Amino acid sequence: MFDMSQQEVCSKLNIVVCMKQVPNTKKVQLGTRTNTLDRSNINKMMNPADASALEQAYRLKKANGGKGSVRALTMGPRSAEDVLKQAARQGADHLILVTDSAYVGSDTYATAKILSRAILATGPFDLILCGRKTIDGETGQVGPQLSVQLGVPCLTNVTSVELNLPGVLCKRLTEKSIDEVYVPLPAVVTLCENMLEHKPTLTELRKAREMSIEQITNRRLELKEQESGLKGSKTQVRKILYYMRQSRKCKMVGCLEEAADLIMNKISENLKNE
Questions:
Q1: What is the pTM of this model?
Q2: Would the pLDDT of 103 be above 50?
Q3: How far apart are CA 18 and CA 183, in angstroms?
Q4: Which of 46, 90, 95, 70 shows the shortest CA–CA distance to 198?
């Protein structure tokens, strides 16, 4: 279905960038009914790793002689249009908002299913770029799940992507090294948050102001009730535990005997306070 010749990829490189609007704050709250993030009264921003994916898409299109398109796609409420407008200023050619009340509460599994359906509904693709994870979820699951839904290979934790048609050559961050890996197209690649955005030109800014946002609802995607939202999710958030950073004091001791005395004194103090 996605088989293509090198010449076809060169003539028009179709890149999809999946992005997410995330809270720009360290303080978040859960919705009382769904136990998912309450995003109603917090400042929002484009997920940093997704911004790197968008910049990489811009550079890849430029490396291909400008032949191709960058399709920015996000799922969320109407307020998520803000990140799409930002994407337009950073080089996206098409802006797509997937929005429907039926999708509220979707976990990464249901989200990947919705996004994959939206990608197929809005045109051909050669390369799908995502951030490796979002700062509000930290799961890193949507990219790999997208590749499973679409039946294409996936590379994660990538720091850079270069055209090496009919595929791409990626530098991938591992625990001990940075590996160079080739993957044939079509493919899904998730990017680390390490790429500086280019400064848009006046022509790009004018083009961005004139761009419209295509809205897609479930009427078009036709997902069943058990395929999206809370009913279509394989996981649910039951509780979030907050870690409180505490200050610590350190004291230098001269010998083991002194250290032992300090420990015993501290234990005695704690026992008295109980």
A1: 0.78
A2: yes
A3: 19
A4: 90
